Amino acid sequence: MVIEKLMINVFAILIPVLIYGLRAEGSWKIQRSLTMFLFMSGAVLLCLVFSINIGSIQWDLRYIPILLAFLYGGKRAGWGVAAIAVVGRIGQGGDLFLLGVVLIVLTALFYALCVNRFYMLPPKWSRIRYASLILLFPSAIQTFGTLILINNGGQLSQSWLAGWFYILFLVMTVFLVTYLFETLLEKERIVAELVATEKDFTKGELAASIAHEVRNPLTVVKGFVQLLSEDKQHAEYHKLILSELDRAESIIYEFLNSTKPQPNAIFPLNKTVHEVVTLLTPYAHERSIQLTIGICEQAFIDGNENKVKQALMNFMKNGIEASIEGDTVTIQLDQLKDRAQIEINDNGVGMSRQQLKQLGTAYFTTKESGNGIGTMVSIRIVEMMNGMVTYKSKPGIGTKVIISLPVVKENVSEG
């Protein structure tokens, strides 16, 4: 009976991990915290229901779902699962239910204090060892502390033996579960790298496509030049020639900038953002669009300033062009711990979910004139700096672009 209940506890924790491995691509990232809260809440309740009673003590694996919720779902999910565990323990009652509730709260507080360190560790083995350690420390103190408090003349020797077995089983289980989690996350990272490699591979095909796109305006130029050579009175063709040449130059420039390596340096991001806004202000005024800007204190990043300017200019210009007369585009720069976050908000036409999925691919654009290469290049610039670009948009409401970049200390550049 004891083994059966322990195995139910283990399976209650393992099943959500297996479901995570079978999830549809992309769905987890959107609702990761909520998913972990729901799965681990179910797991912690099952652990409480199928607990093992030896003497007046309940033995189960309730602390593992709480820990997993903190590590892989964030602090909100962790505290949510801890609250569910508290409610479940109160519902069970018993002589030591108040002690059980206090221990759950103290354990959750300990996990919340340790979780930030977990995120900073390199993937897999360092994280697995750390997860096992932060589970072991409070669990051992609680288990043997409880046994000491209730031990009466050494009559609970069976409980002491169970305590040692319980600690060992806890560590083995959390080691197994975090190993599975980290393996799945490692697989996810490998897939992301393969996708990035595939994108690089398609640049060869993209080059052929661009060559075709360049050939089209040049063919037009050639045709008009031939007409000009036959009839000197068609002066209006000069404007068309210059327009097509500019378009060809723009396509070539955007493609070359997507592959050309540039030296990096540490520079103040807020100064760069302010300069880009200043450059685009006349462009916005021409369309009766208002630009508003909010900038935090100095935030320094390590990268190529010209490329960052190019990317920010593309993102902001897209927001301006998506807006209608009288709209406002808001640019906000904040520093969140070790990352700088730029938010560009417009209340323009917005995009559907399908359009958001295609965003950043070559030749996809929501504009009447454009080829999508500018957005693709801009996203790639941010990603090459270990940054991330996130889009939130709804048709008819507007679009929010969130650009996240790692920051560095100013004095790094002085060394």
Automatic annotation (TrEMBL):
InterPro entries, per the entry: HATPase_C_sf, HATPase_dom, His_kinase_dom, HisK_dim/P_dom, HisK_dim/P_sf, Sig_transdc_His_kin-like_C, Sig_transdc_His_kinase_LytS_TM
Primary subcellular site in the record, as a coarse category: membrane
UniProt KW keywords: ATP-binding, Cell membrane, Kinase, Membrane, Nucleotide-binding, Phosphoprotein, Transferase, Transmembrane, Transmembrane helix, Two-component regulatory system
Gene3D superfamilies documented for this protein: 1.10.287.130, Histidine kinase-like ATPase, C-terminal domain
Enzyme Commission no: 2.7.13.3
Keyword Disulfide bond attached: no
Domain Histidine kinase: 209-409
Keyword Lyase: no
SUPFAM superfamilies per UniProt: ATPase domain of HSP90 chaperone/DNA topoisomerase II/histidine kinase, Homodimeric domain of signal transducing histidine kinase
One annotated GO biological process: cell wall organization
GO MF, one example: ATP binding
Locations listed in the record: Cell membrane
Name under which the protein is recorded: histidine kinase
Organism: Alkalicoccobacillus plakortidis
GO (cellular component) term, any one: plasma membrane
Membrane topology: Multi-pass membrane protein
Reaction equations catalysed: ATP + protein L-histidine = ADP + protein N-phospho-L-histidine
Spans traversing the lipid bilayer: 6-22, 34-54, 96-118, 130-150, 162-181
